[in-house]
Amino acid sequence: MFATGAAWLVADWQKSPLGEDFWQASAAWLLVLHGGGAMVTLLVLGALLPVHAYRSWRSRRNRIWGAIMLAVNSVLVATSFGLYYMAGEMLRSWMSNAHIAAGFSLPLFLLVHIALGRRTRPARAGNVARVE
Fold first, then answer.
1. How far is the C-alpha of 100 from the C-alpha of 76, rounded, in Å?
2. Domain range list for the chain
3. CA 55 to CA 49: how far, in whole Å?
């Protein structure tokens, strides 16, 4: 999702009102790929909520960053819906900026979430280090 979104942004910036077809066609195909990836991502998020998020929330692990991940993904879902279905240019510009900001911040937030989650993971019986 990050790659297609970033590539679309570059292609969109390169579009010219003079009608250069390469960047226009590239932006259109990247948007199709990004939208298709979003559908898969929604399936993954739907699977993560009842299993991963619910279990971790109940065990009181990594709650702050889990909530941040949920919030950022919710912003991405809401703004993508708005970008696809809303028509007003002022609202569209705001949603686009929010979507881009959330999309560029998500990889960093995900890395922090994973790193902190691993630090708070309970030790498995077979992986317990000996203290001698």
1. 9
2. 2-120
3. 9
How much is the average pLDDT of 110-121?
Answer: 90
Of 103, 113, 125, nearest to 48 by C-alpha is: 113
Using DSSP, state whether 86 is helix, strand or coil. Answer: coil
Region 81-92 average pLDDT: 85
Length of the chain: 132
Residue 58 and residue 81 in contact, taking contact as beta carbons nearer than 8 Å: no
Contact 6, 30 (CB under 8 A): no
CA distance 75 to 84: 14
pLDDT, mean over the chain: 89
pLDDT value at 120 more than 50 = yes
